[in-house]
Each structure stands twice: as structure tokens, then as C-alpha cells.
């Protein structure tokens, strides 16, 4: 049986955030606070504070103060990171009417002994490892051709003959000239097995908008972002929350497993085309319920096979598809699976998952193939 690859794009540990509430007159909130050294009590300058997977970020001034402006409603992980200190991660809920204050106390970074079985890489090996890292990290879609790592020399590689490991003391800077973003990536984990070609990637990041050279480039960024959103996992969740799954181009089926070989394309195409709006809606309604204001809960132990009918597969998907499913026959739609190992999954009306543990969901097929080059910030709104 072929090994299915699963990709985890983030790993967050939440802790309680103690805040001071300040009344706001707008729906856009400010988060202000200070960062201190845990031993001396002195303020820390140039610490980076950001809401993970968003464009909201700031650096502390000489007094250790920061301000995140224009934050929209939602549940976030807020990070505080500074050189030679342990990072701090906290959970925060922005209601849309209350400004928040948060202070951070950082502890010095502890030196961890290196694993002696690891082997440092030679210059020849490093070139090979960089290419492997880029392929698995950035992905293989057409957007990858306009997406690159600015500082590959900051990435350290080790291996034990079976697995490849990567880490970086500095944020990995990714320029995505297709979507118009600069990503500051803090790598938590990169482990890849050579023989099974199976691995795991975990990171946290914040986005910065790239400046456009002219109005044409601005429009291109907007069009590419909209295209990246269409058919994505977030688009699917948002369509479920708004009860517009069918009109947004999705068909949904329950499955007991993810196949290692795909059947005849024409047979599956007939099955997809024959599903009616009421059938898709009834399936979603049977597993989804309201879980509070603007929150929803999936409860199912089955795999959900989700087909997006408004776009064809990216041509570069063929290689991955053949390796995983035994065929490279192009589909006129995008076929993905999702599994919730705990049997439940919560998300909000904007299509953002609220589970603390990343591994509460497992993606397969087309969604699993998409990587950093197709990644959008959580505060991206398709109407923009």
C-alpha cells in the first residue's frame, strides 16, 4: 500500500492571555502592550509580536512597547519572539468592540545538546537538501515559480541516513511575487523520510504586503489571491458556515478511507455531476451544528471527500497524483479529503479553524499538495 503524505502547516500551543479591556468605537481593534526580560525586568527592544498567519505584526520600541492596529474580529494565536529568548504563545479573542492590552515576560533561551547521531551536511549534500526543502516547503504549484526563499543560508540541515531535518535560528524570509506577500516564517519542525517520501512541516508566520510597481501589478496580486482562495480548505469551511456550499462550487461525499488508487475518471465524473444541491446540503447539515456566535462544529468520524468543480487541477499536480494515487490523468475538478481524528472540528464563519491542536485535521489529495506558495493570511477577505 502506498504511503499517503500528510502536511501540517502549523503547530500552536495556546495559553491564557490576561488583558485589559479598552472600549473601541470601531470594529477594528488595537492590541497594545510591553515586553520585558524575565530576569532583569528591563524592557526588550526589537522583539517581534504578531498574530500568527495574519498581516498583523509589530516590533517593540526602546521602551519594549508595541501596538497591533486594525485587528478584525476573530480568535488568534499571538506570538512574541526575540533573539536569545524563548518564544511565548498565547491565545486571544478579539470581539470587535474592545481594545486589548497584553504584556509578555520572556525567559532566556536554554542551550540544548545536539543529537550525536546527526550528521552535518557537506556542500554537495546541502545543494540537494535545499532543493528538497524548497520542493516540500514552497510546493510544486505554478505559483512556486514566482516564490523564493531569500535567506537559504540561514537554514541548517542534519540527517541520520534515513531522515532529513531542517531548522533555522532566524526567520525564513519568503517572497511570493505571485500573491504579493513577504512571509516571515519561524520554523518549528521539518522532518522528511527519504524512502517513504513522507514528512511533517510545522511553522508559524506573519505576512507583509509587497509594494506594487503599478496598478496593473496590484490588480494581478488581487486576482491571484482570489484564485488561490477559490477551492481552498478555508473556502470550503466558509461556504459551509454560510450554507452556500453548492453555489460556491463544492460537492461533498462521505468516505470510509482515502483510496490508494483512483477508479475510472468518467465514472467518478458522473457521480460528481449527479449530486444535487439538496444532497450536499443535507450531508453538511447532518454533521455540522452552531457552536456559539459565529462558530460552527463538525462532528464526524468519516472522511469527507470534497470536490471543487469551478477549477481544474494545476498541471503540476500530475506528478504528485501519480505517485500517491497511481494515475496522472487530469481532472476537470479538484479532489480532496479531510479527516478529523478526534471526531470533531470547530471553525468560525470566516473559515478559520479554532482547534488548538493542528493535528485535529488531516488533509489529503489536492489540499495536501498545496503548500506555502499558495498560502493566504487568515485575515484575507476574498471580497477585497
User: What is the number of domains?
Assistant: 3
Which structural category do the helix and sheet elements fall into? Answer: alpha+beta
> How much helix, percentage-wise, in residues?
10-25%
Q: Write the H/E string, N to C.
A: EEEEEEEEEEHEEEEEEHHEHHEEEHEEEH
Number of beta-strand segments = 23
What's the mean pLDDT score? 88
Figure out the total of helices: 7
Proportion in β-strands: 25-35%
Unreliable segments (pLDDT under 50, ≥5 consecutive)? 1-26
How are the elements arranged and paired?
Layout: E1 20-23, E2 29-37, E3 48-51, E4 57-59, E5 65-71, E6 74-81, E7 88-94, E8 98-101, E9 104-106, E10 119-120, H1 123-138, E11 147-149, E12 155-159, E13 163-168, E14 172-176, E15 181-193, E16 198-209, H2 215-229, H3 233-241, E17 250-255, H4 265-274, H5 277-287, E18 288-290, E19 295-299, E20 303-308, H6 317-325, E21 334-339, E22 344-348, E23 362-365, H7 366-369
Parallel strand pairs: 2-8, 2-9
Antiparallel strand pairs: 1-8, 2-5, 3-4, 3-6, 6-7, 10-12, 11-14, 12-13, 13-15, 14-15, 15-16, 17-20, 18-19, 19-22, 20-21, 21-23
Amino acid at each position: 500500500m502506498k504511503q499517503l503524505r500528510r502536511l501540517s502547516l502549523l503547530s500552536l500551543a495556546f495559553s491564557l492571555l490576561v488583558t485589559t479591556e479598552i472600549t473601541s468605537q470601531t470594529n477594528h481593534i488595537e492590541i497594545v502592550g510591553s515586553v520585558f526580560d524575565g530576569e532583569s525586568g528591563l524592557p526588550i527592544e526589537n522583539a517581534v509580536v504578531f498574530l500568527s498567519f495574519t498581516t498583523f505584526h509589530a516590533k517593540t520600541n526602546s521602551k519594549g512597547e508595541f501596538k497591533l492596529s486594525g485587528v478584525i474580529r476573530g480568535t488568534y494565536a499571538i506570538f512574541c519572539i526575540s533573539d536569545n529568548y524563548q518564544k511565548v504563545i498565547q491565545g486571544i479573542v478579539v470581539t470587535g468592540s474592545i481594545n486589548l492590552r497584553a504584556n509578555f515576560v520572556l525567559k532566556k533561551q536554554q542551550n540544548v545538546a545536539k543529537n550525536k547521531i546527526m550528521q552535518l551536511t557537506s556542500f554537495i549534500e546541502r545543494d540537494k537538501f535545499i532543493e528538497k526543502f524548497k520542493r516540500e516547503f514552497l510546493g510544486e504549484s505554478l505559483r512556486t515559480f514566482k516564490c523564493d526563499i531569500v535567506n537559504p543560508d540561514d537554514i541548517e540541515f542534519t540527517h541520520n541516513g534515513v531522515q532529513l531535518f531542517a531548522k533555522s535560528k532566524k526567520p525564513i524570509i519568503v517572497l511570493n511575487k505571485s500573491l504579493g506577500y513577504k512571509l516571515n516564517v519561524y520554523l518549528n519542525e521539518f522532518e522528511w523520510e527519504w524512502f517513504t517520501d513522507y514528512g511533517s512541516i510545522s511553522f508559524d508566520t506573519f505576512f507583509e504586503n509587497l509594494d506594487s510597481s503599478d496598478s496593473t501589478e496590484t490588480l494581478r496580486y488581487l486576482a491571484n489571491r482570489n484564485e488561490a482562495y477559490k477551492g481552498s480548505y478555508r473556502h470550503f469551511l466558509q461556504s459551509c458556515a454560510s450554507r452556500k456550499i453548492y453555489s460556491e462550487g463544492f460537492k461533498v461525499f462521505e468516505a470510509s478511507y482515502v483510496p490508494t488508487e483512483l477508479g475510472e475518471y468518467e465514472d467518478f465524473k458522473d457521480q460528481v455531476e449527479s449530486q444535487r444541491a439538496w444532497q450536499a446540503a443535507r450531508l453538511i447539515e447532518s454533521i455540522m451544528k452552531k457552536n456559539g456566535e459565529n462558530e460552527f462544529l463538525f462532528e464526524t468520524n468519516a472522511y469527507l471527500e470534497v470536490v471543487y468543480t469551478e477549477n481544474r487541477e494545476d498541471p503540476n499536480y500530475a506528478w504528485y497524483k501519480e505517485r500517491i494515487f497511481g494515475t496522472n490523468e487530469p481532472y476537470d475538478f479538484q479532489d480532496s479529503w479531510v479527516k478529523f481524528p478526534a471526531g470533531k472540528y470547530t471553525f468560525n464563519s470566516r473559515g478559520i479553524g479554532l482547534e488548538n491542536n493542528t493535528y485535529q485535521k488531516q488533509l489529503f489529495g489536492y489540499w495536501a499538495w498545496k503548500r506555502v506558495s499558495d498560502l493566504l493570511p487568515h485575515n484575507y477577505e476574498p471580497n477585497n
